[in-house]
């Protein structure tokens, strides 16, 4: 697949349509606002702090994670193909006085120009929205420096993920817009780990991201049957 074609126009349109609500903590992206401190803390713990490190956030959306990493002292670049989402991200960073290098690009296109330039690559809740996840993972592998870290999060292709992420989150609790997720695009952990190893990376850890609707909070812990995150490293 070429660097220009690993994009689903329907997915881009889906996020462009609701781009103005990225930074509304009570809106469609409320789950990401609740999740973000947890995942930022997890990333920071894994790499002994993000301060001073160069990071690229692949599939950054409205910039919730990218901006928080920049606030923590990282030098952050962030890419996405949804122009409206990027516009919102840029405006929010400008208003907040936070420096993030936002660019409209595919992972493959960005890797062609910036190979081996980053200490850390994050790719969160993005792989289930592209036609070829392996192509994105390979691009992430190309972007990171030898010895660098990579973080991939996505949804398991399990009955529990279907029940919680689609039926409960979209249709019952209305936590995210209906149609946000397509079960056929969910990725089993074994498949994701195989892709990671095919890209020449080493899998370091896999853990779950668990939501409690009663407390409206997330936590990291054992169990990868719904949302999960995989940590990988590029050999020296």
UniProtKB/TrEMBL annotation:
UniProt-recorded Gene Ontology molecular function terms: 2-polyprenyl-6-hydroxyphenol methylase activity; 3-demethylubiquinol 3-O-methyltransferase activity; polyprenyldihydroxybenzoate methyltransferase activity
Residues that hold S-adenosyl-L-methionine according to the record: 39, 59, 80, 124
Catalytic activity annotation: a 3-demethylubiquinol + S-adenosyl-L-methionine = a ubiquinol + S-adenosyl-L-homocysteine + H(+); a 3-(all-trans-polyprenyl)benzene-1,2-diol + S-adenosyl-L-methionine = a 2-methoxy-6-(all-trans-polyprenyl)phenol + S-adenosyl-L-homocysteine + H(+)
EC number: 2.1.1.222, 2.1.1.64
Biological processes, Gene Ontology terms: methylation
Pfam families: Methyltransf_23
Assigned protein family: Belongs to the methyltransferase superfamily. UbiG/COQ3 family.
Role: O-methyltransferase that catalyzes the 2 O-methylation steps in the ubiquinone biosynthetic pathway.
Protein name (database record): Ubiquinone biosynthesis O-methyltransferase
Name of the encoding gene: ubiG
């Amino acid at each position: 697949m070429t660097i220009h074609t690993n994009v689903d126009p329907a997915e881009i349109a889906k996020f462009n349509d609701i781009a103005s609500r990225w930074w509304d903590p009570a809106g469609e992206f409320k789950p990401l606002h609740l999740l973000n401190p947890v995942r930022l803390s997890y990333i920071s713990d894994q790499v002994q702090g993000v301060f001073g490190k160069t990071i690229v956030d692949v599939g950054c959306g409205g910039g919730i994670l990218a901006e928080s990493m920049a606030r923590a002292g990282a030098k952050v670049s962030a890419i996405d193909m949804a122009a409206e989402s990027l516009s919102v991200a840029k405006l929010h960073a400008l208003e907040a006085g936070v420096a993030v290098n936002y660019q409209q690009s595919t992972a493959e296109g960005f890797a062609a120009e910036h190979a081996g330039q980053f200490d850390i690559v994050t790719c969160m809740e993005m792989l289930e929205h592209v036609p070829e996840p392996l192509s994105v993972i390979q691009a992430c592998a190309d972007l990171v420096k030898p010895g660098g870290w990579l973080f991939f999060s996505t949804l398991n292709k399990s009955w529990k993920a279907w029940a919680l992420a689609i039926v409960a989150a979209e249709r019952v609790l209305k936590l995210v817009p209906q149609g946000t997720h397509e079960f056929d695009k969910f990725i089993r952990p074994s498949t994701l780990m195989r892709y990671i190893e095919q890209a020449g990376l080493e899998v370091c850890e896999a853990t779950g991201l668990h939501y409690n609707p009663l407390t409206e909070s997330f936590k990291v812990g054992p169990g990868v049957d719904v949302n999960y995150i995989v940590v990988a490293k590029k050999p020296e």
